[in-house]
Amino acid sequence: MTNAKNVANMNEAGYYDGSITNGVVVMVEPYSQHKQIQQVVYRILDANLDRAREGLRIIEEWCRFGLNSAQLALECKYLRQEVASWHTEELRAARDTAGDPGTDLSHPQEEQRSSIKALLQANFCRVEEALRVLEEYGKLYHPKMGLACKQLRYRVYTLETNLMGYQRHQLLWRSRLYLVTSPSDSLLPTVEAALKGGLTLVQYRDKQADDTVRLELATKLRQLCHTYGALFIINDRVDLALAVDADGVHLGQQDMPIAIARQLLGPQRLIGRSTTNAAEMQKAVAEGADYIGVGPVYETPTKAGKAAVGLEYVKYAAQNSSVPWFAIGGIDANNINDLIDAGAERVAVVRSLMQAEQPTLVTQYLLSQLNRIKPEG
Fold it and tell me: What's residue 34's pLDDT?
């Protein structure tokens, strides 16, 4: 059948009318078809209002019980209530659970969650997608619904940024031991062994490997860290941190300015800075570093040619740093108590874990010494 005949037949049936748009064919819905489409729209709105409310409740529960954050929990509650205000009896009445083919649809990734972070991200995506659907189909239901759902969606984006950043900062403050990796044939099993011992902060550092190797290892390390609920930081490379969705980046004194890194990484990721003296510490804090390294306390081949700063700088940091700081450089089980006596509450290590015969036990011992310190409020 020709296009002309198609148009004529559809026009006769009442589906299309090209006469009012200069020949451009548009859809015209007979009353019965209009009612059918209206019911479909109502079902779409009902399903996505449910989806958005459920996802927000899941997020709210973690804010309340996992983070003990009244502020974040309250924002979730406000968002839920505003979404619920659009969930009218008219929309609920259109629900047809028995006739919904989507109730039997599933995906393997929905059957499991590897970590709290994965759970939260999945539900943020769920809420944001639902609000986008509500924004579009809502325009067919109420003149103000589309704009309202658009504004809600942007508030959810802000909540996601704040929550993920809050989680990272909370874990950073709780972390006492920081593993900075060195190249090793047993990199992954060594890191996993330390994670099993309670490690919550890992930095991937490799100055020599090709980018393809770094990308592969960083991806595996990030997955490993997040499985164990630990933070994963990339040394130097902001691009690599973004590529593997790391929790942040650690910058040396000669690396990119913190302000530029922050523009690239956004507000929710962590940025650390190495410091060797009081002036560098104060500058790093003023520029917005989330944490700093203090050292090298002792001479170490990891920082070959760099003079040790000794315990005096550790004592200075203990009295003056307003952000979490980690003593680093030649620290091991034999001298960790000297660091603690000087005021260190957190330490970063390389060889004492990367070269340990039993990384799990060494991690547990170091943490047992550090955890004797009264936690910060």
Answer: 82
Count of C-beta atoms within a 10 Å radius of residue 222:
23
* From 80, 205, 237, 346, active-site residue: 205
- Compute the radius of gyration of the chain from its Cα atoms: 28
* pLDDT exceeds 70 at position 103: no
- Write phi, then psi, for 139 (nearest 5 degrees): -65, -25
Question: Under a CB-based contact definition with an 8 Å cutoff, are residues 11 and 21 in contact?
Answer: no
Is the link from the previous residue into 101 a cis peptide, with omega within 30 of 0? no
Rounded to a whole number, what is the largest CA-CA distance in the chain? 91
205 among known catalytic residues? yes
- The two tokens of residue 362 are 């060494």
Q: What is the C-alpha to C-alpha distance for residues 286 and 279, in angstroms, rounded to an integer?
A: 11
Torsion of CA 171, 172, 178, 181, to 10 degrees: 90
- Sequence-distant (6+) residues with CB within 8 A of 347 are 176, 177, 178, 326, 327, 328, 331, 336, 339, 366, 370
Q: Give me the residues paired with residue 325 across strands.
A: 292
- Continuous H helices in the chain: 3-13, 31-61, 70-84, 89-93, 116-137, 145-174, 187-196, 211-227, 238-243, 258-265, 278-286, 310-320, 336-341, 351-354, 359-370
Give yes or no for a contact between 127 and 59, defined as CB atoms under 8 angstroms apart.
Answer: yes
| 274 flagged as catalytic | yes
Spatial distance between the Cα atoms of 88 and 306, rounded to a whole number of angstroms: 68
Q: How would residue 2 be classed by pLDDT, with cut points 50, 70 and 90? A: very low
CA 193 to chain centre: 24
Rounded-to-integer distance, Cα 248 and Cα 258, Å: 12
pLDDT digits (tens, 9 = 90+) for 34-92: 888 999 999 999 999 999 999 999 999 999 998 899 999 999 999 999 999 999 999 99
